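Data card: per-record layout.
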Amino acid sequence: MPYISSLRHAWPEKAGFTIVRKNGHPLYTFLHFYGSVELLVNGVLTVTRPHTCILFSPGVPQYFKSPQPLLHDWIHIGGELAPLLEAAALPTDTLLQPVRFDFITGLTREMESEFFTQKSGRERLLALKIEELIIKLARACTGEYSTAVDSTTEERFRKLRGELLSHLNFPWTAKEMASRVGLSESRFYSVYRGVYGTTPTDDLIRARIDAAKNALAFGNEPISLIAESLGYNNLSHFMRQFKKHTGFSPAQYRKKSGK
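The structure for this 259-residue chain is written out next.
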């Protein structure tokens, strides 16, 4: 049965953060990068696209460097993983470019929450979550989640989503996003949901809340400045939205995180 030894979702690091493991890691290492990084794969140094994933096999050399501030999901997985990978036809030590990736952070968040509990059935539930991640990632990499759009439109959506997640403080509107990909608002929403499995509004809110959680957990900025930096002009609106998605007020979340 596969098991998790350590993991974090939406984990931040400073610009220039580098990992060098010449002898690899003794367990499987799953990585999901929100932005571009320099990544060594099979001896070739590559600059990845945003939301590239990779699953390193045990003992395979690892190197990556993030020129800009890094945000990523990472999981170290042990146990019998090979049969699951074979069944899903998901390759290891290979760049993975899922057409949809919103589920990755959500599943990692769920696993992280379960990992730090001592509830009954914890190990079994985590093993099932690992399997769910592998199956959904394999589907996303083979295009099973994708809607029918031409390659030019798909590339426009990839670029837009990268801008969306990289500039969370921008006052995004449906009209603005639709105009950037050259579609009507109704068609834009339909294609976005078909490609990414969520609406652009929900996608943006989720990303802003995840960024706020990191800022609250690892920084000391006032809550009002965090809200403003993420595009919220109304502090009360930010606080309501944060509590709706996390179950805590920003102040409670910061206190829970030990800040």
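Known properties of this structure: The chain has ten helices and eight strands. The first strand starts at residue 3 and ends at 13.

See the next section for split statistics.
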